[in-house]
Every structure is written in structure tokens, then in C-alpha cells.
Amino acid sequence: MLRSPVPIPDAPSTAAVRSRPAAVTAATAAVVTVAALLAGTAAFVAATAPTARADTPPGIHVSDGRVVEADGTDLVLRGVNHAHTWYTHTTGAFADIKAAGANSVRVVLSSGDQWTRNTPEDVRGIVDLCQENRLVCILEVHDTTGYGDTSAPDAATLDQAVDYWEDLYPTLTGTEDFVMVNIGNEPMGNDDATNATWGAETSAAIERLRTVGYEHAIVVDAPNWGQDWTHVMEAQAADVFASDPDANTVFSIHMYGVYAQAQSVTDYLEHFVDAGLPLVVGEFGWRRTDGDVDEDVVLAEAERLDLGWLAWSWSGNTDPYLDMVLGFDATDPSAWGTRVIDGPDGLRETAVEASWFGGGPTDPPTDEPTDPPTDEPTDPPADQGCTATVRVTGSWPGGWQGELVVTAGDAPITGWEASFALPAGVAVTQLWGGSLTSTQDGVVVTHAAWNGALAADGSATAGFLGSGTAPAAAPAVTCTAS
């Protein structure tokens, strides 16, 4: 990979942390026959029938196809995924995620089927951290990832995941106002026969949870490694929703390489909205080895349709494109993190804290304002320039990855341009977080539309890929502000 993960004892392998199928082609998709999909749907419908609805569930619930709080207030999730089960010591991430503007966090747990089991005591601590930091907490079991696929031979079934949730029930009861239960992450891979059972298996898991006593909003992931490129969840979602006695199931789509085209994003999201079915984008990225993701459209369309989303992920990936901050250091955001946090339709612009947590103090100040100063300020005008640095974040034979950080001076700026020279035979081939212009000696990077305006001492980040041998020393950078 381009950058190794933070060295953590017992950290999972690359496949364990983020296992993704190769990009799906039209030829591959044709292998899944309409007959197989219809047969699976018919068998599922015959096996399930809607049961009598209970009273409105306590806490977060579905109303008219929307996710709402107990009092009926609309709840639009805007958050981040956090890989807790592999990095259990990084509990400070919850405060950092909140400080980034998120109103929710999706927390990776393990049932013990593939990785070290998170105990009820550990989960209780996570729930407390969510409440302390005023974050809606979506808990998910990751061990189900890719079940039925040859590349995931140890994946657990949804039924095994429910065994784990049954053990957690005494821990989670009473938390319905701010905790959602995501039964199993990406519960099936790309095996056609397995995916044909998605509806029946998902419904059975929901009904078991209700029998245990869970009154939480339940979140269910799509097959095809969460991306539903064969449209199984799309076809069977209405029947799965009808099988929930509490009518309190939310569907989750994961958007990676399959959603490289804007229209594919729009079509999928609009299908659920038009059908009156609750949907969140439970994971999405921006760049993958299996194809780029149209993250701008994901964010813009989710905002237009008032749908929730949770970006993957805060830190700890073996794939550096997906780390929002490097080494769990909130002061060291990547270009991806900067995009999600500060970019258009991002966390700071769109996230609204759940009303259940209550607002801050509302009493007005009682003291009269102090007299204004009478002397004119004598300090000189603030410097309106900027500085910039470049560093190499990873390298491999014939290529490397780098990061540009631009920092404003003592006053706000409305735009910036950074330039630096490169050794002979070395070039920047791809850049994100800005506009790239190659010169005879190196490159010039101009701010993107969403990260040019910086507050005093504020910073923006751009990432890039290079060809040739990585520079042995960090290039000197010239920065010009406007």
C-alpha cells in the first residue's frame, strides 16, 4: 500500500481492515441473471409476512420514510466511521470527531468471529463516550463483511451477529434515543446464491432482535460488499421493512468504486426516497484502487434529498486514501478529511446535533458590557501572506505520494497559490484538493473552490501522487495569498 497504517499491536491485515471487490464491469454484472434475482425475491416474500405494528418505538425511529428522533424532529446523520475494534486505545477520537463538526459516529465492533471480541464493558464505554460527546452512535458488527464470498472465508452470518447483539442487550437497553444497531457490516459479498438470500436472512435477523427485546432503530447493510450493484437490496427493501414488527429499519448503502458516475449515485438515492424507504450512505470514500468515487455528488445529492451519510473513516486504514486524519492526529488532516470536514456540503456546513442532547445555556448575560477602549490600536497591520510545506507521505519503486499544507498568516486570506521545484525525472501526476499546473521546473498548485478562503492561521491540505523517485529532501515551497 502507499502508506502503512499506524503501528498498533494486533492490527488487522489489509484485507481485514478494508476488503473491497474489484471494480464491477457491465460484463460482470450481466452474470447475475434477472431470473436468479426474481427467484430469490419470490422465495423471500413467501417466507415472510408483515406482522402487526407496535406503538411508535421509543427514541430514534422511522416516520413516513424519514429517520426522526423520539419527538419527531428530523435526524439527518452527518458523521464519520471509526475503526474502534482494531484501535481500542484511541478513545480520544470521539471528541475529535465531534470537534470536526459531526453529529454521529459509526463504530466498528467485533463479535469475536474474525477479530478480538468487544466485551459488553467495552461497548458500554463506547456508548458513554458517544453520549458524553453528544454523538448519535451507530454500532456495527464487522465480522459479517463479505459472507459467502471466496475472499472472506471466515466471515460470520447475520444470525451469528445477532448472537452477539443478544449478549449486548442488557448493555444497550434504554439507549434508544441516541444508539442505532447496525446488525452486520456488508453482510454478503458477490456470490449470487448467497445474495439471493439477503432479504430472508436480513428479515430473520431483524425479527430475532425484536424478539430479544431491542426497540432501537435497526440499520441493515446491502450485499455486494455493501454496494448493491446487483440491486438486491433495492428490489427487496420494501419487504424487509414490512417484516419489522416495529417498522423501524433503516437501509444503508456503501458507495465506493461502483458509484464513480454521478447518475448512478442519484438514481440509487432517489429510488429509496421515491419508495418512501429510509436510507443512509453508511460508508463512502473518494479514491480507491477499484475506481474513484464521485464524492462531490454523494455529498451534494445527500444534502438535496436530506439523507444521512458517514464517511469512511477517521484513521487507521492500510489504504491511505481513506484516512481523514493521519495517525489519529486531529491536527494532521488529509486532503480527504479536509474535504469531508470543511468542504461544500461537509460536516461543518451541514451537520446538526441531535436535539435529544439538548442545547447549551440559554440565559442571557447579566453584566453590562465594559466600556470600549478609548485609545487607538498601535499594532501594525496583520501579515496577509501564507506559508506552505510539502512532505513525502509514502513511496514505492517508480512512484510516491505527497502532501501539501498551506497555512494562512496573521490575517484571513481569500485564495492561495503554492509552487515548488522537483528534481529531474520527477513529476506530479495526480492531485486532489487543488488545481495542478506543471511547469518546466516543478508544479504550481492553486486552491480548490472550497479551500481557498482561510481564517488567520487556518490551513488547507492537498494530496498528490508522483512519478519517479521521491525527493530525498522536502522541496522548498513558495506561497502567494490573495
Automatic annotation (TrEMBL):
Write the Enzyme Commission number(s) for this entry.
Answer: 3.2.1.4
Name the UniProt key words of this record, in alphabetical order. Carbohydrate metabolism, Cellulose degradation, Glycosidase, Hydrolase, Membrane, Polysaccharide degradation, Transmembrane, Transmembrane helix
Query: SUPFAM superfamilies of this UniProt entry?
Result: (Trans)glycosidases, Carbohydrate-binding domain
Q: Where is the composition biased (Acidic residues)?
A: 365-378
One Pfam family, short name: CBM_2
Query: Gene3D superfamilies, per this entry?
Result: 2.60.40.290, Glycosidases
Where does the record place the CBM2 domain?
Answer: 379-482
> What catalytic activity does the UniProt entry give for this protein?
Endohydrolysis of (1->4)-beta-D-glucosidic linkages in cellulose, lichenin and cereal beta-D-glucans
- Region feature (Disordered): 356-385
What InterPro entries is this protein classified in? CBD2, CBM2/CBM3_carb-bd_dom_sf, CBM2_carb-bd_dom_sf, GH, Glyco_hydro_5
Q: Which residues cross the membrane?
A: 21-47
Q: What class of enzyme is it?
A: hydrolase
SMART domains in UniProt: CBD_II
PROSITE patterns xref list: CBM2
PANTHER family per the record?
ENDOGLUCANASE (PTHR42754), LIPOPROTEIN (PTHR42754:SF1)
Instruction: Tell me the protein family, please.
Output: Belongs to the glycosyl hydrolase 5 (cellulase A) family.
Q: Spell out the protein name for this chain.
A: Endoglucanase
Which species is this UniProt entry from? Isoptericola luteus
